[in-house]
Amino acid sequence: MENNNKLGKFIIDDTVYETTISDKFANRKPYQAPNPKLLTAFIPGVIRDIKVSEGQRIKIGDSLLILEAMKMKNNVKSSIDGVVKRINVIRDQKVPKNHLLIEFE
């Protein structure tokens, strides 16, 4: 098994540390803060019902859709006030974790 680890330097509190960096670490996705205008699936499941339509104005706490996961029906509610720009799922569609469900304006 070939070891492709590289030597890297980190500075923490004005102290330089030198360590090996694995390919997995070097190729990881950079952190991105969650975008409140994009609703993604928090768990893999099946879309059982969509309670909004494109162009509809919504308020915080409005029910958006039902996501069934592990025999539980999760009522996904809005965390923002806004307008539904696009719905990216259909009823009875299986979705993986982090799948884009709804976009808001």
Q: What is the fold's blueprint, element by element?
A:
Elements: E1 6-12, E2 15-21, H1 23-26, E3 38-40, E4 45-50, E5 57-58, E6 63-69, E7 72-77, E8 82-87, E9 94-95, E10 100-104
Antiparallel strand pairs: 1-2, 3-10, 4-6, 4-9, 5-8, 6-7, 8-10
Describe what you observe in this structure:
With 105 residues, this protein is mainly beta. It is 4% helix and 49% strand. It contains one helix and ten strands; from the N terminus they run ββαββββββββ. The strands form three sheets. The chain has a four-stranded antiparallel β-sheet, with no helix packed on it. Strands 7-6-4-9 form a four-stranded antiparallel β-sheet, with no helix packed on it. The protein has a two-stranded antiparallel sheet with strand order 1-2. It starts with 5 loop residues before the first strand and ends with a strand.
Strand content: over 45%
| Main beta-sheet annotation | 4 strands, antiparallel
Shape: elongated
Whole-number radius of gyration? 20 Å
Mean pLDDT: 92
Helix percentage range: under 10%
Please, how many helices?
1
Measured distance between first and last alpha carbons: 50 Å
What's the number of extended β-strand segments? 10
The strand line-up of the biggest sheet is 3-10-8-5
Helix-strand makeup class: mainly beta
Q: How do the helices and strands follow one another from N- to C-terminus?
A: EEHEEEEEEEE
Q: Which stretches are poorly predicted, pLDDT < 50 over at least 5 residues?
A: none
